[in-house]
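User: I'm putting together a teaching handout on how multi-component assemblies are represented. Below are the sequence lines for each component of a complex, exactly as they appear in our records. Could you produce the 3D structure of the whole assembly as structure tokens, so the students can see both representations side by side? Please keep the chain order the same as the input.
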Amino acid sequence: MSKQEYSNQAITEYLLGSLPEAETEHFDELSFTNNEFAEALKSAEKDLVDSYVQGELAGRTLEKFKSHYLSSTARRQKVEFAKAFLLFTEQNIIETKTENSAAQRARPKQIFLKFFSALNIFANSRPVLKWSFAVAALAFMFTAGWLWFANIRLGQQPANESIVKNDARLEREQNNQNRPQIPPTVDTENGKEIAKVTEERERHEQRLKRKQAPNQQRNIERKELRVSKQPLSASPSKINTAFFILLPPVRSNNSIPNLSIPARVRYVAMRLQLESDDYLGYRVALVNPSGDKELWRSGKLETKISAESKALNVRFPAKLLKSQIYSLVVSGIKINGVDEIISNYSFRAVVK
Amino acid sequence: MQKTEPKKNWIITSSAFHRLLNWLDEGENSDGQNYLEMRQRLVAYFDRKNCPTPDEYADETLNRVARRLEEAGTIESESPAKYCYIVARFVFLEYLRGTNKNLVPLDDILEQPQVRQLAATELSEEKEVKEKMLNCLEHCTGKLEPASREIIISYYHGAERVKIENRRALAEKLGVSTNALSIRACRIRDKLEICVAKCAAET
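Assistant: Of course. Below is the structure of the complete assembly, with chains in the same order as your input.
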């Protein structure tokens, strides 16, 4: 029998005693004779009970659940178990995520240890391999040494160039000195004029050299920067998560913040700043504009405390949001395990 | 098919029980798993019908099937599952006929002092029961294999769409269909529920 002969909705109606008699008898028989239906029935019942415990049932379905489903002691025990079980999964899902991230952090250490343990194979391998490894190591060391010397040689080049320049300058000066000098006595006024111009020229030349020297240094530095600052990756930037911070709502202020959410973003992360941290833990629910439907709910959260504030970090899929107003309802978990709504962070999502 | 009547003096023997097991197995030895599965389906059936003691009615049904097998040697008119359903239906109709004579208005029941006292007691013990259950869950999940533990925690975490997405991702991670994952998670949860009930009764 194919699954199309019964839907999840029909199974739910059956569990709530809402089906007509003929269909009920048909499903009664299927629960014995069809293994696939029997498994689907068990799974649907668990999901129905979980939905009730998590407050997802509403209207007629909730009424029928209370009046029909809870009329049996065995089924009430299932609900009690589900309450404890769902609380247990919430507590442990955080531990599981912490263990996974710890395992990820331990991975580089494991790779590091594996690398060094791999070196032990050379201790026990054949002599041919040992000698090959030794030769390879020597070749590597020789190459490294040659490259090091080459680097030192290249580093000394600017000093050599300056020596050449000095030589050139000395040559120029010598040439200047070899120029026939106008004796001052022949034409004193012209001589003074010439001396003044020469002096001025020398002053200008020195000033020019002083100006050029720092520019040359800057050019060298720019070249070095261009060499060292290679792009690390050429991949185009991808936006995975849009981040926002929401301040505690103020009663006197009715304005609702607008949050621009790019359409290509996968997640929306929010940091909800709290006025106080009085609870053992917190839960956050994303609620639709009319406030009657919960679109997303977090597990148990703990506050992140910094020097200036206490806050809760949440992250949920961006595709839950359309361009309209939403609320993030924050509940505190009391010592007796009961949730108490403490704050409501409204925002207007603008999906672009 | 002959109508099965209750025979109060008939007690199931070892050979009758083995004949019943073999008949339910339909030629393939399941080590009693088919019997346990059938009994579970019977209990669930009688519970859905709001019978006060579904375990007893399930056992009564299986007893009648075993007696019929003992008398007739074999039952070939229907498959074992369908035959068990038919007998269960008769047992349920008998229960209905029996209870119709003893119907009491619900308001009268609720006004009885012992019922009121029971309700008050239940409220005060609820917290204690929950605490006990959490401790037992810790103990019982500790006995699971790590893979099963991860499945059961991840499969039932979240609400509405988040839960659906989690399940899809988990099925993909494990390389199974969502249907297969649902069956696996269901069985692990059933096992946990039995373990927790036993643990809570012992503590």
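A couple of points students might notice: The two ends of chain B are 48 Å apart (CA to CA). Chain B has a mean pLDDT of 83.
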